[in-house]
Every structure is written in C-alpha cells, then in structure tokens.
From TrEMBL:
Biased composition (Polar residues): 157-169
PANTHER family: CHARGED MULTIVESICULAR BODY PROTEIN, GH13992P
Provenance organism: Malassezia restricta (strain ATCC 96810 / NBRC 103918 / CBS 7877)
Coiled-coil segments: 119-146
Protein name listed in UniProt: Vacuolar-sorting protein SNF7
Organism phylogeny: Eukaryota, Fungi, Dikarya, Basidiomycota, Ustilaginomycotina
Length: 187
C-alpha cells in the first residue's frame, strides 16, 4: 500500500507539472492533466480510506485478543479462588481462630503457672506489694519536695569553712535553714 501511495503521489506531481507547462500555450492539455491529477487524488483518498479501515480492524483485533486473554486470565483466577475456597468457609475460619485463641490462653496460663515462685515458704500478696510501692513513692516525693524547697536556703547560708560529712547531716542542716527562713518571713 505504501508503494502504491508513493506511485500515486509521483503521478499527481507529474500531472501538476504537465498542467503548469501547458497552461499558457495548450489549455486543453492543461485541463486533461488536471483531470488526470484529480483522478489520481481520488484514488489516493480511496487508498488512504482503505488503509484507515485496515488499521482500525487491526486495532479492533488486537483489542479483542487482549480482551480474550484478560477474560481467560480472569477465569483461571476465579477457578483458582474457587479451588482454594472449596475447603474453606467463614465458619471454618471462625472455628480455627477460636481454637487458636483458646490455645494461646492455655499457653499463657501455663507460662504464668510455671513462672510463679514455688517453695519460698509464703505466697506474695499483691495488695501488700502495691502498698509498699506506694509508700516508697511517697517517701521519694517527700524527699524531692524537701530538696526543692531547701535549695535557695542552701545557697544563701553556705559556709565554706567546714565540708559536710553525710547526706543525713545535709538534710538536717537544710531543714534547720528552711525553718529559720520561714520564721523570718512570718514576722
């Protein structure tokens, strides 16, 4: 088809050249060349239309093949899913998950039973442990509050002469300084 189109384009150019040659001296020959040119142009248009029709058909066939392959792949996928799900339904899945949960709970109970100390002479009382922990927290908070309130007093009344020997002595000195400052402020 491409060769035919090239041949027709060459013929059209030849006829146009002939028409230009004869336009001034032989009008009848110029008109005949233009008619022939029009005939070649019509043939070229038909050929272009045929090419377009063929290209459209090729595209349609390619699309149909692609659709067919897609449909076959979808059918194979559907069959695979049916095969997989043939032995599985939501009830079986729920039962399996329940069984797993039960076994995990049993495993946790066993682990907890194994990890409890045995033979220590007495069982630990969780409530007693919580109370002791709260007491420790209260003591620590109290200690932090005393340290925070006495910090400015410590800097105001420091003496560089004697270094302190223990934390307990530091706390007693800080408490005394704090009471002295509070007494001054109360006056």
């Amino acid at each position: 088809m491409a060769k035919k189109e090239e041949h027709l384009l060459t013929k059209i150019d030849d006829e146009l050249r002939k028409a230009k040659e004869h336009v001034t001296n032989n009008k009848r020959a110029a008109q005949a060349a233009l008619r022939q040119k029009k005939m070649y142009e019509t043939e070229l248009d038909r050929l272009a239309g045929s090419r377009m029709t063929l290209e459209t058909q090729v595209n349609a066939i390619e699309n149909a093949n692609m659709n067919l392959e897609t449909m076959r792949a979808m059918q194979r996928g559907s069959a695979a899913l049916k095969s997989i799900h043939a032995n599985m339904d939501i009830d079986k899945v729920d039962n399996t998950m329940d069984s797993i949960r039960e076994e995990m709970a049993l495993s946790n109970e066993i682990s907890e039973a194994i990890s409890n100390p045995v033979g220590m002479g007495h069982e630990l009382d969780e409530e007693e442990l919580r109370n002791e922990l709260q007491e420790l927290e209260q003591d620590e908070l109290q200690h932090q509050l005393v340290g925070a309130e006495s910090a400015p007093a410590h800097h105001l009344a420091t003496s560089s002469a004697a270094p302190r020997t223990s934390n307990h002595a530091d706390t007693l000195d800080e408490d005394a300084e704090l009471r002295a400052l509070q007494a001054e402020l109360a006056m």
